[in-house]
Specification:
heterodimer, A: about 210 residues, mainly alpha, 8 helices, 3 strands, elongated, B: alpha/beta, 14-stranded parallel beta sheet, 21 helices, about 40% helix
Chain lengths: ~210, ~600
Amino acid sequence: MATNVEETYLYSSPTTFKVSSKDGEIFDIDDSFINQSKTIKNMLNVLDIADNHMPIPLQNIKGTMLNAAIVFCKYHKNDLLSIPDDEDEDDFERDAYEPRRSDDISEWDKEFIKQFTVEEGTLFDIIMAANYLDIKALLAVGCKTIANMVRGKNSDQVRQMFNISYDPPGEGLNTPRNSVTSKESGDNQLLTTQEKESRCKTPSPELMYD
Amino acid sequence: MLLDEKQQEIELSFVERIYQTFINVRKRLISLSVLFKENEKVYCNDSDSDEEMFMGPFPSDKEEIEKCLIDVDRILEHLASTKDLQEQFPSFPLCKDGWTIRRFVDVANFDPTKRRKTVLNWIKLQTLTACEDAQKNKYSLRRNSYSTRQTIEKELLFDHEHVNGINFLSISSVPTATITTTDEITLSPTNNVYDLNLLDLPNEILIHIFSYLTPCELVPQCALICRKFYTIILDHLWTKLELRNLISVYDVACLLQSVPLLKSLTFVEWNELSPITWCIWLHSMNAQIRSIRFQSTTLNPICVALLVELLPNFDTIIFDYQNKAFDKFDLLLTLLADKSSLKRITASYQLGISNFGILQLVTKLPILIELNLLYVEAINDETVRILCEKHKDHLQILKIDGAQLTDKSLIYIGKCKLLKALMIEFCSGMNGEYFSVIGDLSQLEELCLSKLTLIPLQAYESIFFDHFFPHMSVLKLGECQCINDACVELIVKACPNLKDLTLAWSPDITDIGFETICIGCKKLTKLSVLGCFRIVGTCLNDVPDKYLKYIKHLNFEQCNHTSDELLTDLYKRKNDLFIINYYGTCVETDEN
């Protein structure tokens, strides 16, 4: 197995660990996952887990998403070396005039991401999972997919696609074709998955005046 | 119509502020005039002997200052009389741009939160034009064949000014499983299927998503979707604005108040503006602005004095090449020398720069990180010595013209251990004696030297032999006639992370050297072997399967041993490649 030879890890063998998801499913993870998920890598370095029979709890992630992330990492275990180093990966002050490419999703990744949908919200779940686990490649594939969905559509179509509520017609920037009753703003509150599930309603943007 | 009291207050304070600003500008111009007069003598003494290093300012500069002072006095007079007469004549124009007291009030009262749509429309206009221009540039680059000489210039000189590729409305494939046609998605507000909505994603992920979209997609489409997106896009992504001459000078003043996180601002094609306009614009700008750039925008000393006076924190200033440039640039440099926050200066190609102006800048500024003065032939060894001795602990980027430089200046440059980018054009006065100094600048990321006709092989060896440049990503050596295959191997070994390599006009490089590059430089995206006419390029057959996986740009101009078929075949295999053939034209297939 081709692993990154230049990097050394603080934790020693064993190379497989167990993790448990929010809904109690237990998965085995190996090097491929640990190397790509910075969160797990840091956890292992900090926790210094000697006993690999005790699963590491990942309370934010559903079993299905965790499973998918593991599959993704298994497939991508060898590309670690070939990804050209992108220094400005984390730079949010990056220049808006130089967007990153989003048309370079590989065939396998395209197929992989198809199992997640906007309708069920699973596409957002997998992005949140990737963000939590800090798997850069998976996060990028998810974000690129959404960017590609948004691209070339007018704002009305985007609102429809992502079920974003409209403001009443004529009141602001996003004058809709057909309006949906606005509920109180979900604008400034970021809800976690769990909170969201308990509420199960579409967040509405605030009005925009002009 | 009478203005109410509150408005009167606003207008009073506004006019008062502008008046005060011009008083300060006047002071700056007077001290500038004194400085130039004091140094006048230096120039007189030196004009007859060629030997003396230091020169004073050009004599015509003084006249220019006098002219500016007259202009400022006139403005002050005008403002003062307006202050007295405002109640009778609120619509009396103050300058040729038509500013009136009423306009001042309108600008001062502008509330961006109530006028989102207007602001968005302004930004939309600016953005779409910027994108269109970028698109045009790209297109003409692909179409035009340019002559050899121009290519060298393009390759070596104009690179830092390239419009960064905007991936204009690229139509990407969309996963079909997730979207059928939008019409088929039925909406019901009570639909509880959704666990998570796009709006639930944290801002940093939304910013990540938006980072894949171009400004011309973000502004007209995404910002309109909802207020959250509008805020994210305008506040978090809109840190850079190119301001063109598309909206009125009054609207510009309002727009500048509406982009609170703007860090970098480019003025494009704003000519012949009244100093009052500049003053109001600069008053409207966010004080946190860091970088100012002028493209095809002519400035005079009054504008620069306003800039220095009004923007507290800017650290970067860029003057782009322009056809109708202000030709007494020493004045501007001397004014800028008083701005102690300034750390990065680009004034390449500007006219009227003498050693005097450069020295003012170099000696007065406390910290200088970046200095770009390409095509400014004034710079000599002594100036480089003063520059490097003062700023050796800060200087990271130095791009200068080498016409007057000898090898001695390299000794001084060698003291700047933090240098990341070094470019010296036209090293025609150098003989390579102290090139080994460059070898010790291990932080270098970019090294560009041109006109190396006289530099012997040993000089290159002293740079690259037994030295290691782990960060070097751009290396350009122009007219490096003495480089051979063995030296290429040294280069490849010393700089394993190269992304952009140019070796121009070196007849001693053969296929052996070329293959060394292909095998050794795995990260190359851009490679130019312009005029290296002994290269056949057989190993291009293994591109991109074995070598040069990430290559995007190949230049084989004036390489008459490289066959056209080889390049055409390569293009057929990898058609996102931009290949320039012997004739200096872009390789395209017949179908295109």
